[in-house]
Write a structure and sequence with these properties.
The protein has one domain (about 5-120). It has 8 helices and no strands. The chain has helices at about 5-10, 15-35, 35-45, 50-55, 65-70, 80-90, 95-110, 115-120. α1 (about 5-10) crosses α7 and α2 packs antiparallel against α6. The longest helix has 18 residues, at about 15-35.
Length: about 130
């Protein structure tokens, strides 16, 4: 188990599957939002970043939010997709706010303070 997953388990109080799945969901979103160089830096700092993304639940856009979004011709925003993915892992959307400080703190500890700041800005809203 990687160091960041262990930090999430001890700091946030989730199990290994929730930690890996939630982190994978966040990393997948960041992969889409960050430029290639920034994501490469992130994946060099987070052990097995792509493996975590691959383990993340995919779920699609079901439920009422997905139905409403499709009725109006749009998809769910990134934060809504993350919240839905967290729900699929048995966590509420509020847990996202507990994962992000652990991730950014981990990156800062690895010398990625600028990247951590960029991620915090990207994840503040859609």
């Amino acid at each position: 188990m990687n160091e960041l997953v262990q930090q999430l388990i001890s700091s946030v109080g989730v199990d290994q599957q929730q930690a890996e799945g939630g982190l994978g969901l966040i990393l997948g979103t960041l992969k889409d939002k960050l430029g290639g160089g920034d994501f490469e830096q992130l994946s060099n700092m987070v052990p097995d970043a792509q493996g975590l993304i691959d383990k993340a639940p995919t779920g699609g856009s079901g439920g009422l939010m997905g139905m409403a979004a499709s009725m109006f011709g749009g998809g769910l925003g990134d934060m809504a997709k993350l919240a839905q993915g967290f729900s699929g892992l048995g966590m509420d959307a509020g847990m996202l706010g507990r994962f992000l400080p652990v991730l950014t703190g981990f990156l800062e500890g690895k010398g990625g303070g600028d990247l951590a700041g960029k991620i915090a800005g990207l994840m503040q809203g859609d």
